[in-house]
Amino acid sequence: MGVTDILSIQLYTLRSLESLDRILDTVAEAGFRYVETVGSHLEGAVGVRAKLDARGLAASSSHVSLAALRERPEFVAEACRTLGFTQLFMPSVPPEQRDMDAEGWRALGRELGEMALRFHDQGITLGYHNHDWELRPKADSKTALELIFEAAGDSPLAWQVDVAWLARGGADPKAWIEHYRGRIASAHVKDIAPAGRNEDQDGWADVGSGILDWRDLWQTCRRSGAAWMVVEHDRPADPVTTARASFAFLSKIED
Asked: For residues 28 and 53, what is the distance between their CA atoms, to the nearest angstrom?
C-alpha cells in the first residue's frame, strides 16, 4: 500500500470553488483518489456518489454535524453506506458551546460514546475532530478533549487528530497522539505558516511549506493507528494551488 492509497483531502478546503463538479475536478487533477466529504454532501449522497465515480474518486470519510447525529442518525448511516465509507467524524461543537464547563464536555463525551456504540453496530466508526479550544483546562487541569475521551469510557469513540490545531493550541502533538493512540482512526494533515506570514490565510500554509515536520508527523500518526491521512487547509488563498502543492509534497513521503 502506497501513500496515495491512504491520502485524502477534506473538501471544505476547496469550498470557495463553490461548484462540487469543479471541486472534484480540481482534486482529481491534483492527483488525489480519495476525498473527505462534509455534512451537506450526505444530503445528496446518491448524486455525490455518481460524481465521485465519474472521476475515479472515492470517499474516505465524512464530517457530520452534532445536530444530524442527534436528529437523523439512520439517515446519516444510510448516506455513509451510499457513499461507501466507514469513518465519520463530528468536526466541532457549535460556537456557543465552545466555552462549556467541565460537566458540559463530560456530557458530550458520554453522548458521543453512546452514539459511537450504535454506529459501531452498523460497521461505522464515529469519532471526534479537534480544534484548539478543546485544549483549554476545565477541571483539575484536565482539558476539554481529555474530558470527552474520559467520559466516553470504553466506547469505540475514535479521534480524528488535527495535528496543526494541537500545535496551534500550544500542545505537543506527538505526546497527545501517543497518549490516545488507541482512539486514533484518522489524521488531518495541515501546516502552519512561519510567524507573520499568510495572515490572509489565518496563518495556515500548504502542507510542506510551513513549520511542521510532516515527514516525522506522518510516521507518528500512522504508527498510532491513523488509517486515513486527510489534507486540510482552513482558509487557502488559492485552493487549486493548495491541493496541487500538498499532494506533490505528501506523495513523496514514505509511508
From this structure: 11
With a CB cutoff of 8 Å and minimum separation 6, the contacts of 135 are: 143, 144, 145, 166, 169, 170, 171
Largest CA distance in the chain: 52
pTM of the shown model: 0.96
Residue 144's closest CA among 180, 184, 98, 112? 98
Which residues lie across from 128 on neighbouring strands? 90, 159
**255 occurs within a structural domain:** no
Structural domain total, the chain:
1
Residue 9 lies in a domain: yes
- Render pLDDT for 68-94 as a digit per residue (tens, 0 to 9): 999 999 999 999 999 999 999 999 999
Q: Write out pLDDT tens, residues 109-118.
A: 999 999 999 9
Give a yes or no: residue 119 inside a domain.
yes
> Residues 164, 203: contact at Cβ < 8 Å?
no
Four-point Cα dihedral 15, 17, 23, 25, nearest 10: -170
Nearest to residue 153, comparing CAs of 179, 116, 125?
Answer: 116
Residues 189, 229 contacting (CB under 8 angstroms) = yes
CATH at 26:
3.20.20.150
Residues 6+ positions from 93 with CB-CB distance below 8 Å: 66, 100, 108
Distance CA 47, CA 162 (A): 29
- Residue 220: domain span: 3-250
In a domain, 140, yes or no: yes
